[in-house]
């Protein structure tokens, strides 16, 4: 299983022809070393199948979601390995009602929207990331950057005159965890000087927006208010 055009598994009901699949796995450790290395080499935009034990708001899951892959449970991999062939995916689509209830969304609906969005959920938006907003995330800004860019946005740690000119037609969003830090105060001041509404949101808004594949700026629960 991997990114190579041909696998060692024959395709079920396909007259044993080779079957091109590219798998990205998150939250599953039961690999042999060779298969794990192959899976780790898959890029999000290459994957045809995302394998997960549950719905996760990880960098891998949210970045791959933008490309609307088939999202399957880890049982599918186990059966493919056991049978040494590609098993029909229809019985193995990821089902996680607890996470759907927790995050108030439906995975099937998000996948449909992702297919319609075509990786353009954040198209036309420039995101400035305050370091404090991502201090609790592994690799901090880099993790958030990959999620945002996979969904069509542009991500920077600070906005400069140069990138404001380069992205002059973009709407700028600040991701922060406080309205009282320096980045937020400067951001608000600049927006007010040009009579623009300051768009300041926290990381929860980013994760929820990507998971639902629906861009809304009216969610008062996510907009920072102090």
TrEMBL record:
This is BRCT domain-containing protein. Residues 37-94, 117-223 form the BRCT domain. GO terms for biological process: DNA double-strand break attachment to nuclear envelope; double-strand break repair. InterPro entries: BRCT_dom, BRCT_dom_sf, CellCycle_DNARepair_Reg. One of its GO terms (cellular component) is Cul8-RING ubiquitin ligase complex. Gene3D superfamilies: BRCT domain. It holds the Pfam family BRCT_2. The lineage of its organism: Eukaryota, Fungi, Dikarya, Ascomycota, Taphrinomycotina.
